[in-house]
C-alpha cells in the first residue's frame, strides 16, 4: 500500500499530522475537520518514524468570541493647561509683530491694510501657528491675544497697539 494512502487510513478526523498540507475548512465545517491531503514527497518523512498527532480545537469555539478593543482616543480634546497654551499663542503672535521681526518681515507688512490690520487667517497659516490650529479654534486664539499689551484685536484682525503707523509700507 502506498505511504500516502496508509497515512490517510490511520488518521482520525480532526487530527493534524505533520507533513500533510491542509486547506482551510469551508464555512459550514462540522465540529471536527477532516484533513485534505496533498502529496508529500517520500523523502520528507521516514516510514519508520510515526509523527505524533496534534488535536485542533473545534472552529465553533472562535466564532462567537468577543474581542476587547482598546478605548478610542477622542478626535478633539480640549487643552489641558489652557493658561500655558494661551501664553504660548500670545507669545508667538507677539513675536510676529515684534520690532525685531517686523524690521525683516516684509511679507507680514505687505499684508497690513491702511489701518495696520492683518487678518488672523493669514497669521494662522504660518508654520508655527499650524500646531495651535489643530488644538483650538480661531476664537480661542483671538481671545488669547486680547490681553496682549503689544497687540489689539478687532473682529478677525490683529495689529500692533500703538505704533502700527510706523510699519505700513504704502
TrEMBL record:
GO molecular function, one term: mRNA binding
Listed GO CC annotations: nucleus
SUPFAM superfamilies membership: Winged helix' DNA-binding domain
Keyword Ribosomal protein: no
Cited SMART domains: LA
Pfam families found in the cross-reference section: La
Protein name: HTH La-type RNA-binding domain-containing protein
PANTHER family named in the record: HTH LA-TYPE RNA-BINDING DOMAIN-CONTAINING PROTEIN, LUPUS LA PROTEIN-RELATED
Biased composition (Low complexity): 1-19
UniProt entry keywords in alphabetical sequence: RNA-binding
Signal sequence, renumbered to the chain: none
Record-annotated HTH La-type RNA-binding domain positions: 79-170
Cross-referenced InterPro entries: La_dom_prot, La_HTH, WH-like_DNA-bd_sf, WH_DNA-bd_sf
Source organism phylogeny: Eukaryota, Viridiplantae, Streptophyta, Embryophyta, Tracheophyta
Chain residue ranges for the region called Disordered: 1-22
